[in-house]
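#struct-queue
[09:14] JT: dropping the first one here, sequence first, then the structure tokens:
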Amino acid sequence: MLVDVAKALADESRLRIIVALDGRELCVCQLTELLGLATSTVSRHISVLRQAGLLSSRKHGKWVFYALNRAERGADVRSAIGWVLANRAALPQAGDYRRRLNLILKTDPEELCRRQNSC
């Protein structure tokens, strides 16, 4: 388990996903827009984070929303998430990503999905 968590945290995009999910749920379209990566790449990052126990998901209609998993896996997962969030300012361009996320949150996920041709 510890090795899975360490491997999951060893990628800047996955760290950004954790930071983006602090206090909110997001769908793949929103995370894809934020990271500027292909949908398949974002899905792979989400899969790694889920396998490490760092994310949970909730299905609502055709949408799957992801959130930080603070309860299911215990203290080690909560500690890892807490460490990432406490050090979020150390990520390159942290302010730019925060501003971009605020714009994305104001955009209808359906529109993001259409824009990305992923619906």
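[09:21] JT: and here's the second one, same format:
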Amino acid sequence: MEDTSAVRVSLSEVQLKIDGTTLAEHYEKAIAMRLLLQDISATMSLRVQAVETSLDASEAAYSTQLAAVEELVQTHKRMVAALDSMFAELKQRMVDPTMVGGEVGKTLFDFVDAETVVGLEHEANALVQTIRDQLKTNEESLQLLHATLSFYRGLDFNGLLSLPADTRGDIWDALAATCQERQQQALDCKTRQAALLETTLAKPDRPAALVHAASESSALAQAGLGAVTHLNSLYDIALEYFVDMEQCDRRILATFTKMHEASQAYDSAFIECQSIVEELSNLLRFYERFIHAYETLPNEIQRRRDYDAATDRLVEDMQRKLAERQEEEVRRREVYANDYLHFLPGSLCPSIKELPRTFRIVTDQPASTPQ
């Protein structure tokens, strides 16, 4: 009976020492697993932060694009409405037949290039649709990125994290805290078991104490193993998440590339549409001045008629005065010739026999006013 008790005591002492070695190994494994999980967690956390940062920038750019295109569309609508109103007014403005070679029924609308305006409006509408299509692509891409982020934020490590029940908290902080707790658990088990072995071996009733301590040591060894097992489970899950994230990263990169291409197409169409709207605005201002210019025609025509009439009177008066002067000069030269010419030799001052110069006023063909 004493031999059996001695064997039991000896086995208990051996078991205590084995547990101590095992717990030391568990602690080393816990440290190694925590470091591995720390590296994976840091990498995954940085990836999530990078996606969040890029997504924030993309959403800001999308909001700017959306506001810009809405403003452009409203400007285009106002321009089209103004041009439609302008065309309606031009159609109501009848043209004086005397201005168009006697043709009756002409309106100012007949003198504008309405087809060009309509063509520009259709082109602008097509570009606006292209812009909206690119914005739709970006909207869908943003939704996909949000879904991916929701997946990242929804990682719960199968409930193995020390996360408060009433709050979600930060998953990566929770993972770090859980890893630290399990490592500390392994250290506590190792420390307690070492202290247990030391105090047990020092007790006077060592045989009985060893048998009692063996049971407690076994529980500590199991607790240390549980900490390592917990960390191993977290590592396996984290590795799965890491692989999933690698695949998601490729999709994220493709999504951002797609958004970049859509934004380039948006910018190109937006600039072109802006140019067309500006051209329509210039046409509207031109037609406004066209109407104003037409309204000035009657006064200008009357002014020119008055000018022509006054000029005609001036020419008639000048022609009459020239004729009178010429007749007077001819008469005086005839008197001189009668009085003196037969006394003068023919070779002396032959020009004295010449008649006075005659003048006539010629009307030139009017030239067009430079445009």
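[09:30] RK: nice, looked through the second one.
[09:31] RK: The chain has one domain: 2-295.
[09:31] JT: good to know. Helices lie at 2-92, 114-153, 171-202, 206-340.
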